Amino acid sequence: MSFDLTDHSHARFSPLTDSWVLVSPHRAKRPWLGQQEKPGRNDAPEHDDKCFLCPGNTRATGEGNPDYKSTYIFQNDYAAVKLEQPDLEPNSLDSDPLKERLFKIKGVKGNCFVICFSPQHNLSLPQMAKDTITNVVRAWSDLFQKLEKETIEEGKPYKYLQIFENKGTAMGCSNLHPHGQAWCLDSVPSEPAKEFENFAKYEHEHGTHLLEDIVTLELREKERIVCQNDSFLVIVPYWAVWPFETMVVSKRRIPSLNQFNEEERIDLAEIIRNLTIRYDNLFQTSFPYSMGIHQAPLNADEEELSAAWFHMHFYPPLLRSATVRKFLVGFELLGEPQRDLTPEQAADRLENQDGEVHYLSNIE
């Protein structure tokens, strides 16, 4: 009997994070008697008078939203980081050598923003027109450039802009109005920093960028491609952790949003719409996920620009239906990540969705 990747357990290495994931495809056959999620739906009205994000409404802090007609960005009323706070002085801490070695601490400054994708309350990205999503991409780019300018001209300590979206209550989203967030910190967060380190290490050893080689290999093998256009490729990564995890990668070396041309902004909008439609169609549900952009730091130097390559991660929790989700518990928390469905099987199922809207949760 020969080894079968679709039936026998094996581990796959992620060069992005320098870690392994256990793949156990035979476990997909096990019965499920665990927790059942409610299928994702959005049968809300086009405008909700009680929504803190709808145009013209008053937010929880008493601030009023303008009657916006397109993508709207405002400073988060409950930001996770503050711009105005005292510096953490080293001499203000206990000088015990053991504590200094083990209990490391640093102050963090920054700002957070809410990005309303659309004024229409009952839409999600796959239900929006490509032009609407293109406006979102432009807003991301404009925010990136604005924060770079503020860093230079006003001395604000911004270093990295983490743009993300949590879609659906399964991912902790408390407001279903279509929106994302952008957290801007004075340092590079751990996950992108880990990628930058591995990108630089790979290029030093092989003379090419890691994502450049991934694009080349995936286009050659055609086993994990979900969809693509002239500028972007969507794959289920060879080392994916979440069952239907995907990665959107620019085909050319673009460090960050502010270096996109207009065609690439439109292409990114198109690929986001194409992918998220496939997600919704897969289980006929408003498919939950956490999505985030990884790109170069703000005002990046030559070394940082060399390491960076624009890409997006989509981490959806659903496993085998609209009601059964993946939990990272037990071995996944204490040993290493584990998945039941092979990345190739997941890519095949997503690719076979035709990319046309069949699931319209807001009109059911």
Automatic annotation (TrEMBL):
SUPFAM superfamilies: HIT-like. The keyword Zinc applies. It catalyses: alpha-D-galactose 1-phosphate + UDP-alpha-D-glucose = alpha-D-glucose 1-phosphate + UDP-alpha-D-galactose. Residues 2-189 form the Galactose-1-phosphate uridyl transferase N-terminal domain. Fe cation binds at E195, H294, H311, H313. Residues 195-360 form the Galactose-1-phosphate uridyl transferase C-terminal domain. GO terms for biological process: galactose catabolic process via UDP-galactose, Leloir pathway. This is Galactose-1-phosphate uridylyltransferase. It is an enzyme of class 2 (transferase).
